[in-house]
Design goal:
26% of the residues lie in helices and 29% in strands. The protein is built from five helices and 15 strands. It has helices at residues 6-17, 28-49, 230-245, 248-269, 287-290; strands at 56-62, 69-71, 76-88, 91-95, 110-114, 117-121, 130-137, 141-142, 149-155, 158-161, 174-178, 186-196, 199-202, 213-216, 219-220. The chain has a six-stranded antiparallel barrel. Strand 11 and strand 12 form a beta hairpin. Helix 1 (6-17) packs across helix 3 (230-245), helix 2 crosses helix 3 and helix 3 packs antiparallel against helix 4 (248-269). The N and C termini lie far apart (54 Å).
Amino acid sequence: MPDYTTTGLIEQVKRRISIPPSQNLITTARFISILNDELQTRIVPFLMSMREEWFVTYVDYSTDGTTSEYDIPSDAVGQKLRDVQLWQNGKQYKNVPRLAPEQLVDSYFGFYVQNNKIIIYPDALASGYTLRISYFKRTNDLVSTNDAGYISTASSNQITLSTTPPATFINGAEIDIISKNSPFITKETLTISNVVGSTITFTTNTTAVTGDYACISGESVYPNIPIECIAMLCQSAGIRVLEALGDTEGLQIAMANYAQIEQSAKATLSPKVDGEVKRVINRRRLMRYIL
């Protein structure tokens, strides 16, 4: 099975641009730094441009009718929102329209953005509902497998790692459980309550399984992207390595290969659902208020 951890990614970068595996011009730490740069600046925007809900998640806020300001999550890409909704009893009640500040005097209800907060206007009309903010979640930073733990067994609120845990795995630390399967999502974030040898106990039960990785929250040994984009990531990183090495001829070849890989990925990933097309629904049609 291919290795999609940072160890495997680095080997793939070297193979794609034909540099010796034993080269010492670029360190492992620098390779990981380059991979992180390309992940955030090239791959994430590429996937978001598909408009197929990659990286979309949400956070819920309780409303009391007196609080009007709510933080945009700090892990939102570009502090960018996907949607703002009101929910009640586990069901969507209504979408909250976005307003410009100058529209407030003539508007019945909505929200506007101010710096890194959304402001509900008027706040009393949201009272008793759950305010759900959907947003594009930033991918975890890639780290070496030495800074994470391969999960050999898991049950209840414990996991056992295949090696001694990193020094950062201490009581109170927050741990992300990274799925071993594409697109390598963060399955959950847990808090360590105890560490004995290679066994880690959390404050709550875990859904981790053998083969997942435990990483400090915000980190991952896998890129949080579909397998179909990993070749793009490694080729893109290879371009940056060739730039650093001053290999002009190799750079031209690598850039041409990247364009081909990107086109193939685009054809594979979009649309996300082949059997049905998206339907345009008029949110403000009269029948929505009559029925």
